[in-house]
Amino acid sequence: MTMTAGAMTDLATRRAAAAALIRRKRLLALSVPVVLAAYFIYVFFAFDLAGIAEKARGDNAVTLLSDTVSYKTHVTRDNRTGEITVAKEGERKGAWPEGQVPDWVAVSGETVEIALPDGHRVTFGPDNTAIYHHPEFGDIAARASRAGGVQIEDGEAGLPEFASYSSARLDIRTDAGRMTVTRNRTEVFRYFFGWELFWFTLDSPYHNRGVLEILFGPQIDPDRTNIAGAWHDFWTNAMWQHGAVAWAIFETILMAFLGTMGAAMAALPMAFLAARNFTPLMIVRQAFRRLFDFVRGVDALIWTILLSRAFGPGPLTGALAILFTDSGSFGKLFSEALENVDGKQIEGIESTGARPVQRYRFGVIPQVAPVLISQVLYFFESNTRSATIIGAITGGGIGLLITQAIITQKDWEEVTYYIVLIVVMVMLMDTVSGWLRGRLIKGKG
To answer: Which DSSP string do the residues of 297-331 spell out, in sequence order?
Structure first.
């Protein structure tokens, strides 16, 4: 069977088109990895990843990690008065009472011996001298004075890598501990694993008491029962402030709740005005849709800054910021849900002589309620996390406590504590919202 000239021409055209399509696909397959490689090269230089790697401080990372899972006991000598203080985390609220020191600190007149792990130790001597005894390197001696600053005996050239020195400061960091010497004070840090004083401070009669002793043992404080007294001292713990933290968590949840529910209530009636099947006038629909675009197009953090300028800091300002942003998101989602309702149910309600409000109540709301409830609960769960960041700006909730702990640059174990509480709070909100969705939408517990 011979092909006509027209058929041969058509076949050649198809072959050429197929060959061109194959070439385009090959070119696309090669161009995608090339574009990705070019993008990653751009990111490497634009964000100066090499410079970041050079600036990274491994010792600071180790110190930060240690601070999150342990606590420091500070032994401090005031180089002006000679006073010796021993305090956990260097705070007065965690200081040993006068005349008392831990068993690894020995005070004898102007001499103080501080034992550190692995054979390391520090000696505070007369005339503001301090000696770090390293079992391998040897002794590093320094003297602080108001006039001459910090002076070391063997000179800067003889210092090991774990020591840094200037005329104003000597800093020695080892795995066993740390010693710093300045004109005004000499300080030694020793790390211990755990969150000390988390339950009770040193001035509480329940400090270093076991759970069984508190619950079933004899009365410890003659003025209070063991359970009532222990609970009071735990709740009013001056260092960890459990009562204030619990209130901050409540403020964060309340901020998210007020913002989310307020946005849902404000967006629902406006969603009817933005839905095509409920508002025939296009100018009205477009006006409300652009309003939704505007309020949700500005991030909640921006609204937080603007509103805090207008109303001042506080949890209410954070709730209003969430309300502004979510009202636009809810308005868009609700209006789209309303546009997909089944008109037959509305017609059935209308045939009974129901008024417009009744048609919406019994013909529309039952159809969109599952979608609306699911979206509101999801946003509430998400806003619980967002309220943490917003609270850091507006001065409310757990976010404020995290900011304060980070600013001090020493309370990293408290930062870890707050982060753990936030994770637990989010997990709890996820569980509660899932249970509510099951009860309200599917009728299951």
So the answer is: HS-HHHHHHHHHHHH-SSHHHHHHHHHHHHHHHHH
The residues spanned by each domain of the chain are 74-193, 195-233, 242-442
Q: Is 71 exposed, middle or buried (0-12, 13-18, 19+ CB in 10 A)?
A: buried
**Cα 254 to Cα 435: distance, rounded to the nearest angstrom:** 19
**In the numeric block, which tokens belong to residue 346?**
């509305």
Phi-psi region of 112 (alpha: psi -120 to 50; beta: other; left: phi over 0): beta
pLDDT of residue 188: 92
The CATH homologous superfamily to which domain 242-442 belongs is MetI-like (1.10.3720.10)
pLDDT attached to residue 445 = 47
DSSP assignment letter at 363: I
Cα–Cα dist 411/245, whole Å: 15
Q: Which segments in the chain show pLDDT lower than 50? A: 1, 445
Backbone region of residue 2 per phi and psi (left: phi > 0; alpha: psi in -120 to 50; beta: other values):
beta
Per-residue model confidence as pLDDT tens digits over 284-342: 888 998 998 898 888 888 888 888 888 888 888 888 989 998 999 999 888 888 888 77
Distance CA 349, CA 343 (A): 10
The 10 Å Cβ neighbour count of residue 213 is: 13
Percent of the chain with pLDDT over 90: 11
**Tokens, residue 207:** 């400090």
Q: What is the SS3 assignment for 173?
A: strand
CA-nearest of 231, 260, 295, 228 to 375 is 260
Q: What is the pLDDT of residue 350?
A: 67
User: DSSP secondary-structure letter at 146?
Assistant: T
